[in-house]
Write a structure and sequence with these properties.
Blueprint lengths: L5 E7 L3 H8 L2 H7 L3 E7 L10 E8 L2 E13 L3 E7 L5 E12 L2 E10 L6 H8 L4 H22 L2
Antiparallel strand pairs: 1-7, 2-3, 3-4, 4-5, 5-6, 6-7
């Protein structure tokens, strides 16, 4: 796999399994994420297993859009990942959370890979209001990880 377009790392004073449980629950992830605001399981899915799909609701200021995500990695305490497509089924991105034990806590690395075809960037940027997605997502990841740390450590 190529290098991610945006990534961030944080140390959290909570067990990898506990932090994984927060990240792998799309409802809980929405509580800490910067643009992602909520979800609805689709296709009979009811939980975060490989192959499960969820419709994501996203927002940035007054802008709103939805995506469809398919879980690709669901290894508790180690990795959670999903591929994002647009409503039209076109690829958008891949998001991945990797967990490494560190003492009694863990290191969490959040990464995003751009998947949009070049011609699709203008229409999606118009909808989201983000013209430099790599820079925006670097900031989004930093904010999300900071909130994740706060929530995970508060629930210990």
């Amino acid at each position: 796999m190529t290098a991610p377009n945006a990534t961030g790392r944080i140390e959290i004073d909570a067990a990898p399994d506990a932090v994984y449980a927060l990240v792998s629950d799309p409802g809980r992830l929405a509580e800490v994420a910067e643009e992602y605001a909520g979800h609805r399981w689709v296709g009979g899915a009811a939980g975060p297993v490989v192959g499960a799909k969820f419709k994501g609701s996203n927002r940035r200021g007054f802008r709103r859009w939805s995506t469809l995500s398919t879980i690709t990695d669901a290894d508790p305490g180690r990795r959670f990942g999903f591929e994002v497509t647009s409503v039209a089924g076109l690829p958008v991105s891949r998001w991945q959370y990797d967990f490494e034990p560190l003492g009694e806590g863990c290191v969490v690395v959040e990464s995003m890979w751009e998947r949009r075809p070049a011609w699709f960037k203008v229409p999606t940027s118009t909808v989201t209001g983000v013209w430099n997605r790599d820079t925006a997502n670097a900031g989004n990841i930093a904010a999300t990880l900071a909130r994740l740390k706060q929530v995970a450590e508060a629930s210990r």
